[in-house]
């Protein structure tokens, strides 16, 4: 028989984690149910439901950025005018997850702690240098998303730690971002390959900063600094994007599965990176002067 608890505070939740080793926290439960039905993972002996903990469902804007409670739904992120305007890649990714019902139920914290290499929100959070707040009975700590993700289905959080919030700093002024993925269907699909990009384009049309992260081509979502470095100080356009995409494809570690072979994923990495960079640049240049606006019009007319 499964033991079930539904605490009303984070203090109660972390105390249950301490006193019931092996317990599994559940929020939307979308990944847990799918894995159990598919025979991938059996249901745990103890479930701790988090839906009654009000503070985990809150969102708060601060001077440094936005704090998203662990129970923030993908639907909230997808529809938030603030997220769509400042962290577009995260809104893009959230809009692609599952179905409307999945997005209304599934949570950002659950997506991160499930730690699938194909998670859509992971790469956007990497390009924004997001961090998570982990709480346990004796205190809390902050960990970057890059350091949280340890491998397929694994994080660096201790068994008695609860993810309370995801903190996403404001991007630099003039930054545009996008998330693009390759899949077989437009809904109820998992990424074959995905890419997030964040670019700041100066008024002269040159790239001032660049971030690229990849989905479903390594044991975790993956930043690619070597590809980012190739973009700095160059015109935002086809040549620079193709070179960076090639560098990104050189570092991936894909696997073959029912959705695609390793060779196919490696080849498609460069395709989705170019698409993500192009869309991010188009979003970045809206207020960066004549050179930027010319690039945006060119991109829209392609």
Automatic annotation (TrEMBL):
It holds the Pfam family CO_deh_flav_C. Residues 1-173 form the FAD-binding PCMH-type domain. It comes from the Bacteria. InterPro entries: CO_DH_flav_C, CO_DH_flav_C_dom_sf, Diverse_Substr_Oxidored, FAD-bd_PCMH, FAD-bd_PCMH-like_sf, FAD-bd_PCMH_sub1, FAD-bd_PCMH_sub2, Mopterin_DH_FAD-bd. The keyword DNA damage does not apply. Keywords: FAD, Flavoprotein, Oxidoreductase. This is Xanthine dehydrogenase family protein subunit M. It comes from Pseudonocardia acidicola.
């Amino acid at each position: 028989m499964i033991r079930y608890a539904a605490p009303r505070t984070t203090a109660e939740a972390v105390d249950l984690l301490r006193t019931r080793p092996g317990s599994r926290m559940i929020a939307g439960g979308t990944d847990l149910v799918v894995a159990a039905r598919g025979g991938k993972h059996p249901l745990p002996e103890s479930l701790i439901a988090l839906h009654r903990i009000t503070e985990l469902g809150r969102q708060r804007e601060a001077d440094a950025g936005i704090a998203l409670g662990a129970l923030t739904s993908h639907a909230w992120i997808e529809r938030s005018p603030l997220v769509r305007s400042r962290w577009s890649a995260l809104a893009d990714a959230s809009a692609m997850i599952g179905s409307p019902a999945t997005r209304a139920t599934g949570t950002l914290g659950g997506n991160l702690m499930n730690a699938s290499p194909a998670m859509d929100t992971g790469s956007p959070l990497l390009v924004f240098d997001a961090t998570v707040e982990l709480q346990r009975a004796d205190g809390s700590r902050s960990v970057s998303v890059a350091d949280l993700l340890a491998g397929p289905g694994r994080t660096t959080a201790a068994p008695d730690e609860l993810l309370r919030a995801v903190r996403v700093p404001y991007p630099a002024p003039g930054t545009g971002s996008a998330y693009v993925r390759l899949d077989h269907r437009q809904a109820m699909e998992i990424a074959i390959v995905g890419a997030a990009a964040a670019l700041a384009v100066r008024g002269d049309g040159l790239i001032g900063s660049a971030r690229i992260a990849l989905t479903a081509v390594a044991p975790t979502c993956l930043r690619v600094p070597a590809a980012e470095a190739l973009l700095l100080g160059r015109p935002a356009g086809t040549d620079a994007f193709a070179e960076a995409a090639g560098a990104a494809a050189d570092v991936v570690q894909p696997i073959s599965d029912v959705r695609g072979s390793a060779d196919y994923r490696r080849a498609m990495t460069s395709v989705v990176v170019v698409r993500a960079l192009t869309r991010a640049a188009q979003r970045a240049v809206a207020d960066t002067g004549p050179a930027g606006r010319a690039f945006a019009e060119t991109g829209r007319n392609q």
